[in-house]
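Re: the 283-residue chain
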Amino acid sequence: MTKITKALLPAVFAMFLLLSACSKSIGYTKDALLMDTFVHIEVNDAMEDDLRARAVDKVVARMKGLEKRFDYFSKDSELSKLNRGEKTSLSPEMKKVLKKSEDLRKMTGGAFDIRFGPGKKVNLGGIAKGFIVDEGIKILKESGVKNALINAGGDMYCMGEGAQGGWKIGIRSPEDSRKIIARFRVRDKGVATSGEYERHSHIIDPRTGLPVEKILRSVTVVAGDCMTADGLATALYVLGPKEGLSLIEGIDDAECVIVDDDEMHISEGFPQIALTGVSKFKN
């Protein structure tokens, strides 16, 4: 997670990777600045406004607490204490994210790795946001919500039917945020994207310690939870289309769309996850 200043906020807003679309009656929504990005929470259940508002406030509080726990730059965060080697018991949340990170490291052959540098410090920027989104969804479910979306700057979870038989997702063009290069619908899935939106020179291949060689336009992963989608999207950007598709085909409940210079690579099972199919790629 990188720090941003107020001067950068308009640019960050324009970098929202994915869009959700719904009917004119969108129910209750709330936007907040968390995890150095804009977070959009939308509840479309037929509940009393005060109940929806209370549930969303709980989500924001939970996400803020987790953000502090995983903050790489805060000397007081649990992650910083871990990196300093302080003897302290790890929280259940930290244990879960570290366990998932190790599973993904093995699964991807090291293309996803939270440790970097000669001191092998841990940076959870490639997975913590997805976990925090999942935890927010958990709060909504516990509050009785069945139809909602949390979008944290492109890492999102789409719960329920949305407005029209599934949440409508659009992948924005890295070159022009006003253009959509692919559309599909999902329900009860996590979605995450990596790509030129994140300034490719900042996406490092953990296996070499260098910026990724192949510059892809974008990689979008749909999975059963946002944490998995988040980690896999980063890994697939590192791996590229051929290795990335090969990896995804061997993982249950995960599909992807990889946009290269001049074509779109879609995993075999994506049409089943994308309830309305994927639109054809156009330059």
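The two ends are 31 Å apart (CA to CA).
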